[in-house]
Amino acid sequence: MKDQRITVRVSPEMRRRLKAVANRGGRRESDLIREAVEQRIAADELSPTAYEYAKKAGLIGAVKGTVRDLSTNPKYVDGFGGS
């Protein structure tokens, strides 16, 4: 598969710093940017979701004595939100 090209705007200061790091390491600026984006995406993919945090905190299913599908069944939310 052919690589895709995107355009990213950076401040003059960030560009100066990027060039300096690239020059010190003998690398291309685009390689550093790809590496940084990959690291950020990987970190985000490993981060728990809000649902996972809530479940771990014991907030999912915390209301006792009600229907199990309260938050997902449309029949319980008719009339809310101006619908």
How is this structure best described in words?
- This protein has helices at residues 12-25, 29-46, 50-56.
- The chain is mainly alpha-helical.
- It has one domain.
Give the end-to-end Cα distance, rounded to a whole number of Å. Answer: 45 Å
Largest sheet: none
Mean pLDDT: 88
- Backbone CA Rg: 23 Å
Name the shape in a single word. Answer: elongated
Secondary structure: helix percent: 40-55%
Number of separate structural domains: 1
Secondary structure topology:
Layout: H1 12-25, H2 29-46, H3 50-56
Essential attributes:
83 residues, mainly alpha, 3 helices, 47% helix, elongated
Summarize the structure.
Helix content is 47%, strand content 0%. The protein has 3 helices and no strands. The model has no long low-confidence stretch (mean pLDDT 88).
